[in-house]
Amino acid sequence: MNLLERLNQDMKNAMKNKEKDRLSVIRMVKSSLQNEQFKLGRELTDDDSLTVLNRELKQRKDSLHEFEQANREDLASKLRAELAVLVDYMPEQLSEEEVSKIVQDAIAEVGASTKADMGKVMGAVMPKVKGKADGGLVNRLVQQHLS
């Protein structure tokens, strides 16, 4: 079952169970996916869907950080609930050890030795961990391994 089909099914369940917050998030994600599909002018691949989900997740994480800094707990708690719904649709996240192994392999693959080679390493790692690891974690691990 692709993501759009799963969202449609979950949307029906959320309506039946009167889960307004969950329904709202599902509708937002579905709308983003449909907008992306219209923009690309073709059916979305799993990779395209994952990109849209990552974008939605990142937007909410950034907003959450801003709300927490502004001491807006009312808005922050709403975003935490939205994040929890979005995480359900993401692939299982890699552990830090797994990401570290991928980073080490990429460093060897591109022959990187200094922090100046960080861009090459990130370019090799990110497609392998797309949707399965946070970019901040990857960045931190690449810096650790190159220093």
TrEMBL record:
InterPro entries: Asn/Gln_tRNA_amidoTrase-B-like, GatB_Yqey_C_2, YqeY/Aim41, YqeY/Aim41_N. Gene3D superfamilies: 1.10.10.410, Uncharacterised protein YqeY/AIM41 PF09424, N-terminal domain. Coiled coil: none annotated. GO terms for molecular function: carbon-nitrogen ligase activity, with glutamine as amido-N-donor. It holds the Pfam family YqeY. This is Transamidase GatB domain protein. It comes from Halalkalibacter akibai (strain ATCC 43226 / DSM 21942 / CIP 109018 / JCM 9157 / 1139) (Bacillus akibai). The lineage of its organism: Bacteria, Bacillati, Bacillota, Bacilli, Bacillales.
